[in-house]
Design goal:
183 residues; globular; alpha+beta; single chain
C-alpha cells in the first residue's frame, strides 16, 4: 500500500520522513506538548529520528499510520496525527496526535482528526477508533467528545511517564455513530 496523502481545507497530511526530524524534535522537546503525551520529552534529535523509523516500520507492518500535518498556506510542519495499534482484522485502531503550541486553539486538530476518521471508516473500513487520554487533558477530551467520541472508563495506572504511573480515560467512536453524525 502506498502511503495515503490526505487533504483538508487548510491542511495536507503527509508521510513523515527523516527530512522532518528537526520539526518532530522541536515539537516533542516541549514540556507543554509532552505533559499528557505518555512519553518523556525529547532531549536529543536522535529520539525524533528513532520515532520516524518506528512510524515507518508500523506502516510497513500495517500496525499504524502516522501523518505529518502541514499547513497548505506555507507548507509549515506543525504536528503529527495517526492511528496506533492498527488492527485491520478486528477493524480498530487508536488515534493519537500532537500539535505545536503556536497552532493550538485554531481548529486545526479537529480538522485533521475529522479527515483521518473519514479515511479510517471509509477507506480502511475500521469499525472502532479509540483514544487514550489523561484525565487532566481537558482540551483533548473536549475536542474528542465534540467530534463524537464517548468516554468508556478509566484505565488505572495505564501509562508510566516521568517515573510515575498515570490513569487515563479511554474514549471511542464507532462507525455507525460516525455515519449517523454525518447526516
Amino acid at each position: 500500500m502506498t502511503f495515503p496523502i490526505l487533504e483538508t481545507k487548510r491542511l495536507k497530511l503527509i508521510e513523515i520522513t527523516h527530512q522532518h526530524v528537526d520539526y518532530i524534535y522541536d515539537i516533542l522537546s516541549l514540556e507543554e506538548v509532552t505533559r499528557f503525551y505518555g512519553t518523556n520529552r525529547f532531549t536529543l534529535p536522535v529520539e525524533a529520528s528513532r520515532l520516524i523509523d518506528m512510524f515507518h516500520k508500523n506502516f510497513v507492518d500495517k500496525r499504524g499510520i502516522r501523518w505529518g500535518i502541514k499547513l497548505k498556506e506555507n507548507q509549515r510542519f506543525i504536528g503529527t496525527l495517526g492511528l496506533n495499534g492498527l488492527h485491520l482484522k478486528n477493524k480498530r485502531a487508536e488515534i493519537g496526535y500532537e500539535l505545536h503550541p503556536a497552532y493550538w486553539r485554531r481548529g486545526l486538530s479537529s480538522e485533521a482528526i475529522n479527515e483521518v476518521i473519514r479515511f479510517s471508516f471509509q477507506q480502511l473500513d475500521l469499525y472502532r477508533i479509540g483514544a487514550v487520554v489523561y484525565p487532566e487533558n481537558e482540551a483533548s477530551i473536549n475536542l474528542l467528545m465534540k467530534i463524537g467520541f464517548k468516554k468508556e472508563g478509566i484505565l488505572r495506572g495505564y501509562i508510566n511517564q516521568n517515573e510515575q504511573f498515570h490513569d487515563t480515560y479511554v474514549l471511542s467512536l464507532l462507525k455507525p455513530e460516525w455515519i449517523e453524525s454525518q447526516g
